[in-house]
Specification:
About 80% of the residues lie in helices and about 0% in strands. The chain is built from 17 helices and no strands.
Length: about 300
C-alpha cells in the first residue's frame, strides 16, 4: 500500500513538472516572433496549427494575413484578413480594418484600401475622436500619395487637417503640429506633381509650424520631408544627405535612399539599402510602399 502511494505521488510530481501544451494563442505569439525575424513560412505553420485548434481565433487569422502579405501572397492574405474582420472583437475591429487597408497598399490599390480606412474614419467620427479620425484620414491620404494618386491624397490630407480642428480643446502646440502635417503633405504632393517651387514654399511653411509646435519628437520627420522633396524634384545628392539624417528604421526612407543612390549611379549602395528594407518585417503603410520596391529592384 505504501509503495503504491509513493508511486502515485511520484507520478503526480513528474506530471506536474511537465510543461503544459501550448495553447492556440501561445502558438500565435511564437509565430509573431518568427515573423518578425523574417521566417514567414515557419510562422505560418504555427498559425495553421493554431487555427486547427481554434478555428475562430481572431489573432491567428490576422497574423496569417500579415505573414502572407510580407511573402507577397496578397490574395491569400486577404482571405485570412476577411475572416479576421468577421471574428474581431469590438476593441480590435479597427485594427483588423486597417490591416486590410495596408494589405491593399502593398499592391498600390488605394481605392480598395479606402473602403476599409473609411470605416475606421467613420467609427472615430461617431465617437467624436477627432484626433484619431484626422490621423485615419492622413493614413489613407498617404496610401493615395504613394500609389500615385495626388488628387485624392490632397483631398484626404485636407480632410485630416480640418477634422483635427474640431477637437474642442486643441492646444496651440497641437494646432501647429497639425499645420506642420498639412504643409508637409502639400510639399510632398507638389514635389510628386513636378512643382518644385511650390514644394519648397510648403517646406518653409512646414518648418515654421514645426518650430512653433515646439515638439522635439516631430523634428525627426523634417529631414524625411526635405529628402522626399529633393528626391522627387530630381536633386538626388540633397535627397541622400537629408534622408541619411532621417529614421533609418523606416523602410520607406531606406527605399528612397536606395532609389536616390541608384539615380546617382551608386548601384552598390542602392542594393544595400534595398536589402535593408527586406530585413524589416513590419506590416504598416511604410513597409507596404517600400517592400515591393525593394523586391523588384533586387530581382532585376
Amino acid at each position: 500500500m505504501l509503495r503504491t502511494t509513493l508511486f502515485l505521488l511520484l507520478t503526480a510530481a513528474c506530471l506536474a513538472q511537465q510543461p503544459a501544451a501550448p495553447t492556440a494563442l501561445d502558438l500565435v505569439k511564437q509565430g509573431e516572433k518568427l515573423n518578425s525575424e523574417g521566417k514567414q513560412d515557419e510562422a505560418l505553420a504555427l498559425y495553421k496549427k493554431a487555427m486547427e485548434a481554434s478555428p475562430n481565433l481572431y489573432e491567428a487569422q490576422l497574423e496569417s494575413g500579415i505573414a502572407l502579405d510580407l511573402k507577397g501572397n496578397y490574395a491569400e492574405a486577404r482571405e485570412h484578413l476577411t475572416k479576421a474582420i468577421e471574428l474581431a472583437p469590438a476593441a480590435a475591429k479597427q485594427q483588423a480594418l486597417r490591416t486590410m487597408a495596408f494589405s491593399y497598399a502593398f499592391e498600390g490599390n488605394a481605392s480598395e484600401a479606402a473602403k476599409f480606412e473609411q470605416q475606421v474614419f467613420d467609427a472615430q467620427m461617431s465617437a467624436q475622436d477627432f484626433t484619431a479620425a484626422g490621423e485615419a484620414a492622413n493614413e489613407l491620404a498617404r496610401i493615395y500619395l504613394e500609389s500615385g494618386d495626388t488628387a485624392n491624397a490632397y483631398k484626404r490630407y485636407q480632410l485630416g487637417y480640418e477634422t483635427a480642428q474640431h477637437k474642442p480643446d486643441l492646444s496651440d502646440a497641437d494646432k501647429n503640429l497639425w499645420l506642420f502635417r498639412w504643409e508637409n503633405a502639400q510639399a510632398r504632393i507638389a514635389a510628386r506633381s513636378g512643382k518644385a517651387e511650390e514644394a519648397h514654399q510648403h517646406v518653409a511653411a512646414a518648418k515654421a509650424a514645426l518650430d512653433k509646435a515646439n515638439n522635439p519628437d516631430q523634428a525627426r520627420f523634417f529631414p524625411y520631408l526635405t529628402g522626399y522633396v529633393a528626391f522627387y524634384t530630381g536633386d538626388y545628392k540633397t535627397a541622400i544627405t537629408d534622408l541619411q539624417k532621417a529614421d533609418q528604421r523606416d523602410p520607406l526612407i531606406l527605399a528612397l535612399l536606395g532609389e536616390a543612390y541608384e539615380k546617382s549611379g551608386d548601384r552598390s549602395q542602392a542594393m544595400d539599402h534595398y536589402r535593408k528594407v527586406l530585413a524589416i518585417n513590419t506590416h504598416n503603410p511604410t513597409n507596404a510602399f517600400a517592400r515591393p520596391i525593394a523586391k523588384k529592384k533586387l530581382a532585376g
